[in-house]
Amino acid sequence: MSSQIDHLLNEDRRFAPSAAFAATAVGDADLYARADSDRERFWADQARELLHWHTPFTSVLDWTNPPFAEWFADGELNVAYNCLDRHVEAGNGDRIALLWEGEPGDERRVTYAELTDEVKRVANVLTGLGVGQGDRVAIYLPMIPEAIAAMLAVARVGAIHSVVFGGFSADSLRARIDDAGAKLVITADGGYRKGKVSALKPAVDAALADRNGSGPQETVEHVLVVRRGGNDVEWTEGRDLWWHDVVPAAAAEHEAQAFPAETPLFILYTSGTTGKPKGILHTSGGYLTQAGFTNKVVHDIHPETDVYWCTADIGWITGHTYVTYGPLANGATQVLYEGTPDTPHPGRWWEIVEKYGVTVLYTAPTAIRSFMKIGRTVPQSFDLSSLRLLGSVGEPINPEAWMWYREIIGSDRTPIVDTWWQTETGAIMISALPGVTETKPGSAQVPIPGIAVDVVDEAGEHVGNGNGGLLVITEPWPSMLRGIWGDPDRFVETYWDKFADRGFYFAGDGARLDEDGDVWLLGRVDDVMNVSGHRLSTAEIESALVAHEATAEAAVVGASDETTGQAVVAFVILKQSFLDAHPAEGLATTLRRWVSEQIGPIARPRDIYIVGELPKTRSGKIMRRLLRDVAEGREVGDTTTLADTMVMSTIQAKITT
Ligand code: WTA
Question: Are 398 and 365 in contact (CB under 8 A)?
Fold first, then answer.
């Protein structure tokens, strides 16, 4: 970390927005002034300007029971109406909402009128299945237009969606279905990934398989299945329904009912410091306000002319806020791509940029670094001149990747917005405004208008410019999480207890303020790893490893990795009883596959080291810091607090031989 900080400290390149960009930019410096003079009024103005309220609100923020906030609580709206019908009613029904590209190269263009029609039908199907206000619906779909339609239809009837990333295993899906008590699952037979059909329905079947009386009672009544992969699937009569049978047959008329602004909109599970994923809860009015506002001013969306593309999967928060809700609330036209960046060739993304004339691209540093590795000739063989703004999200972007992104993808011309936020914050919190801020490679820089953050020490004191500390959010914000599903105590403990006397939200990230007071993010300070921009918990992977019959104990660390930011590295102690009866050969491979099956391929350890002991303090706490030293090939740091100071040399001898 210290070499990283030194490196960042020496970064003095600056990029001011061009006069031409600034002249047409949506966001201007005046936004900061307005927000500073009256923060609540500023957000109320945004909510009124950006959204349609069936019942206007009079109350802006209710913070009388912190940390449980209410925004615009006496107002009523319908989220789907805001993303769809009102654009059609305003005469923009023919505008394309989705420029969808399947991995094999098939395409669909979906207008706002068509998407509205589809969502109305799906809403009628949901009502017919008994899904209504407050019910939970799990969505396990590939990146196809139906995924967006499903989310919006759930929102339209006042139900709550829980989107589960298609790369998660049956076990992970089951845990999420159970925690939320989902009544319906919306899935597909399969979708295209890396040149072939990757099945999804079998994971749903496995998740819902007979539990032999173990586990919580089954809450799922129906499974709605989109045909996409064309692969054979098993069918449970009475439970399973084909989307293409029921959706086109449903009535096309559906009037959007208004719901109170604090109506839950979705639950999204994310990794925390313990083994059990947290169901982050977001509600309607405040979330949609900040989603729409940030997409507009940070991504500089001009709905009539821009072709926007956020490459995130809807299984993550970035896909929720910057694929589904933000751009559709703004009436934007966006690209939706089903597949992987390198299928069938390494220039696939740049081919898509050229084909659709993408103007604004929003992606993750891990993708940029993997393109850097392939080399500039691939993107340079496509016409990328339509691009006028680039965005980055999900992990710290190192200055080299930032410069490559700007020079090679952005022709040394486009502004870059490095946006810091979290599943919990719901929307962008720290970012440059592209027409206003002079940008610095590697720094997310400044809170957006209406947001207040600080970098503090352990006591909650501001660290002052030039110093590092912990990132906190000092004032409530419209799209803040409203809780952890079913666990209000964990919500308070995880985010608010640390700085309870000050009322700060603790983000879990380390950060540094430079001499100008700009924020540089330095990565997580807890046991959460960030692999390819995805959050993974060390504890969750450890508990998957020890669930295998061969494993006695396991410790997992995130080791820095040139491409993925961090990589999962596991240290495992095997059971003697297992070794007595089985050969040890191939076990590391078996365990890697096991983790992939238990959680999903994103959690598969890059390396597994079989060791005899783990470094522990006298109180029995595993010293991950030392394991990280080993995993990153560094000299092992201070071992004096270890119960057995010999352990590290034994581990190192084991790994280097
Ligand atoms: C990290 C993704 C540095 C951070 C939107 C945060 C970042 C976690 C940035 C949230 C950024 C996200 N610079 N770090 N621009 N953006 N992070 O919930 O550690 O998947 O706490 O939300 O990603 O990850 P999550």
Answer: yes
Contacts of 285 (CB under 8 A, 6+ apart): 47, 51, 53, 57, 71, 72, 75, 77, 261, 262, 478
Q: How far is the CA of 105 from the centre of ligand 1 (A)?
A: 31
Residues 300 and 435: their CA atoms lie apart, in Å, by 8
Q: Is 416 in the pocket of ligand 1 (CB under 6 A)?
A: no
Q: What is the pLDDT of residues 236-259, one digit of tens each?
A: 999 999 999 999 999 999 999 999
Q: Classify the phi-psi angles of 417: left when phi > 0, otherwise alpha if psi is within -120 to 50, otherwise beta.
A: beta
Indicate the top mutation candidate among 509, 528, 529, 560 to test ligand 1's pocket, ranked by most ligand atoms within 8 A of CB. 509
Q: Can you list the alpha helix ranges (DSSP code H) found in 208-284?
A: 243-246
- Ligand 1 pocket: which of 366, 422, 524 to mutate (most atoms within 8 A of CB): 422
Q: How far apart are CA 598 and CA 390, in angstroms?
A: 36
Using a 6 Å cutoff on CB, does residue 423 contact ligand 1? yes
pTM for the predicted model, two decimal places? 0.92
Q: Whose CA is nearest to atom 10 of ligand 1?
A: 422
Domain ranges of the chain: 532-656
Alpha helices in 409-548 (DSSP H): 488-495, 538-546
Record: fold of 532-656: GMP Synthetase; Chain A, domain 3 (3.30.300)
Do the interacting molecules here have an ipTM over 0.85? yes
Q: Tell me which residue has its CA closest to atom 1 in ligand 1.
A: 395
Name the DSSP letter for residue 138: E
Q: How remote is the CA of residue 98 from the centroid of ligand 1, in Å?
A: 26
